[in-house]
Amino acid sequence: MKITCRDHTFLIENLPHQSLQLSINEQLIPLQKIETAFVLSIDTLLDIFKKKNHPVKFVDESGKPISFKHLSEPLDIAPNSYIKQGKHSYFIFIDQDDELSLIYNKKPSIMNFYDQDVLFEGITRQDDVLLLKFSFHSKYFEVKQPHCFIKIRHQEQKIALPINRFSVTPVDARRFKTEVEAVIEPKLVEQLLGDRYNYDAFNANIYDLMFGFTIREMPISGFTPRIRHFKNHPGLLNDEHWLSLNDQHDVLVRPYSTVSERLAMRLIPVPVETVEYYADPQPLLGLDPNKKTIICFEYPDKAQDNGMIFFKYLVDQHQKRFNIFYIISRSSPDLKNLVGYENHIVFYKSPENIEVVQAADILCHTHSSSYALPFATYHTEALMQTKQKLFLQHGVIGSKDVSHIYGKKMPHPFTDLFVVSSEREKQLIARDYGFHPDEIIVTGLARFDHLITERSRWLKRYKNRKKLLIMPTWRPKLDTYSDEQFMESDYYREFQALITDERLKSLVMDNKIEVSFYLHRNFQKFSHLFLSDFVDVISQDAFTVKELLENHHVLITDYSSVGLDFSLMHKKVIYYRPPILVGEDNVGESTDLLPGDVIETRDALMESLRESKMPKKFKRHLSHIYAFDDTKASKRIFEAMQHHFQL
Description:
It is a single chain. By secondary structure, the protein is of the alpha/beta class. It has 17 helices and 34 strands. Strands 24-23-22-25-26-27-28 form a 7-stranded parallel β-sheet, with helices on both faces. Strands 4-3-7-11-10-9 form a 6-stranded antiparallel β-sheet, covered by helices on one side. Strand 32 (554-557), helix 14 (562-568) and strand 33 (572-576) form a beta-alpha-beta unit.
């Protein structure tokens, strides 16, 4: 087949058919034939097409689509074989069914032009850059220019990678193979990290790789499909590619296969001295080889939860028997919480961080155990699997299913020993999370020791305090939004409306109540968007969560586990859940275990706020959620850990 365009007219030649027709809404529009060419003029097209449409098929005299599945000779399609006149554009192409089609006022999708086989083929080092290699097959049309893009997941911006080289090779009459080398260079990594990136922090961003291309014959859509990466593909198991970023840092570029077998990457800046230590480790800390080594950690920048409390217990009670360390970022505002324990601190991303994890016998984690190391590779993941792990938790698991995060998935189980707060919770974890009952310990949470110790003092000191804390949790994906996108969300609109509600203002003014609004750590970057003339919007560096819970007498939250912390102080919790903010993963959630009323409307919320004392019915139910009323959780955790791991 040959297609050309002349004087705003399509000429279609060398078709072995007596007639050619366009099939539109079950109507057949015949094409005129002049000598050997079927002719489709701009005048005919303007008569037929009035608005943007889905592709329509060309059919033969019997009404069958014109198919090229068994093409034996390459197509002859001239460059720029499309018609554009004013606001009208027409494209003839071969669709995903290998059938001749036409589309009006819409560029054909790139999905029609490649064999959906784009494949990652590895990364190599060349001088001071990395070359990312991939290949794909285009259909019917030879690639003019390939493209490669990298973007932060859930964000809109795509950054183009320079193309070092590419080659196009005909395979058969239908396909051309294109091989591409795209360049990953330091300035591109710095652009992705951004000007405000904290090099001491954990980079949680996921970077997706996609591609596109142009052809000579016509413009095609700018959609960029993801590059494929098959799990355990031979030759692709090298996931450690280091690039010099600047004088102080190298960056680990780690490609990996997602669940859907698409190519993604982690970009992790690491101090140069830490990378050098990783390559050639030497003793730094003078660890006692006769002692077991225990490490505690939360998020790399945090020390205010069960990890910190249990760490302090271990140092206070057992430092003569064990090497005990806490891992935390050098720039963490929580370092003040570790005063007096400086000899047991190891800074995140330091050479000592690598040494202490390599030497560790037990990792005590409140979230993922992967936070123990500044980066993850196949090599370090294999190292981590040799370590015994104790999951200290950071809350009580109720009816909300979080087994996708904390479930036991072989061959790499999330943890080895799972802390819970009641027999009810133990049964839930055994039933739904894949852990054997012997791997679950009913001890209570370490941070509740301090909470219960101080409860009487707090109630006495703050008996007449009138302070209301509004503390909603975050929502997945919203934390990746820009300020403008976030302000369009139902979440922002609802809580901004709440902290500016005139009824709430009158209630707190009349009763001389102070109101604080505190966002989850994942939403702290949006704090400046919330404005109120009677509510204090608090940043995470101003107070710890513990201090906030201590200093307020009523809590409004939605799903946060801090509701239990608050209720254990015998203070009132309200769960404010407008239907518009109830996510799919919370629909049908049982509220039987919540230590407070669930409120769905602002009217009902205002009414509930007229009483500040915790209802007695919730005090009676606390034992079903938390089985202890003592200060020995850390002791119980240690003894269970000692027994389970045979220390």
